[in-house]
Amino acid sequence: MNDLLLLSEAQMRRIEPYFPLSHGIARVDDRRVFSGILFVNRNGLRWRDAPGAYGPHKTLYNRWKRWGEAGVFTRIMEGLAAVGAEPKTVMIDATYLKAHRTASSLRVKRGISAA
Q: Which residues form the Insertion element IS402-like domain (predicted)?
């Protein structure tokens, strides 16, 4: 199971303050569920294709939906970005942009209109 957890305990402690508080009912382990959400999104899977070690796929989806609507993921990203004192350059892999440019230029070369 430890190899399925995508965040270390230290990393999880950094983002825990951004999660909503539990309302009296003990929640399923946030670290496990968050790792499951990351795994599904990173690999482009359907929720039902998530490994069972992350918990029920319905739990992963419901938590992703609620946290997304509540702005949890946005707060995590903003909070982590604000941690550093000096601005940092963030590099993004251009693989998807490259594929898109190639695909769009093929239309022009072959005379296929985008209409």
A: 7-77
